[in-house]
Write a structure and sequence with these properties.
Order of helices and strands: HHHHHH
Radius of gyration: 21 Å
Strand content: under 5%
Number of helices: 6
Structural class: mainly alpha
Largest sheet: none
Length: 174
């Protein structure tokens, strides 16, 4: 069969293409985790520094247009409900969001800069978050939390694949 200019066969080229695709999904997954961590940190800080009425106004400002179009919009109503719930347990919710956000951002920073320590740490922490989400789902069903949990499992699998590749690549460098 054919080979490229470097003498690689079709199977090796296919593996290289699959590796690149997997790496792109890994990058997308950690980007989403980073945005999520940043939003959690900002949300936690807002809970600390803004009065409940101001928080409600800010959230309503962002979802008002969507609710006018569709009063049953799942995301907009979920955001309003989550905000009300977070305000009810303000101190614990803000502490949870701030810590959760900082941990995610630190792990994403390590993953984005290929720090080897961050791969097993991210796998363990994201798995811990996922186990907690599964517990939450067992107590009260939420489609949103179910989707987030499935996405988290996918990100964990992508981190495992990337970590395996990174370890193999580093042993070949030595």
């Amino acid at each position: 069969m054919g080979a490229d200019a470097l003498g690689r066969g079709e199977g090796e080229l296919l593996n290289l293409m699959m590796r690149r695709i997997l790496h792109r999904f890994f990058e997308l997954g950690i980007l989403i985790k980073g945005v999520d961590g940043g939003l959690e940190l900002v949300g936690g800080l807002l809970l600390v520094f803004l009065p409940p009425a101001a928080i409600n106004r800010v959230v309503f400002f962002f979802v008002e247009g969507e609710l006018k179009e569709d009063p049953t919009d799942l995301v907009a109503n979920l955001l309003l409900h989550t905000t009300r719930s977070a305000i009810e347990v303000r101190v614990s919710a803000s502490a949870f969001l701030i810590v959760h956000g900082i941990v995610k951002l630190a792990l994403v920073g390590g993953l984005a800069t290929n720090r080897l320590w961050s791969y097993p740490a991210a796998i363990l922490v994201f798995a811990g978050f996922t186990i907690y989400q599964l517990y939450q789902l067992s107590q009260q069903y939420s489609l949103f939390l179910e989707v987030v949990t499935v996405l988290d499992v996918i990100v964990i699998l992508l981190v495992i694949a990337e970590y395996t590749y990174m370890r193999i690549a580093r042993t070949h460098e030595i």
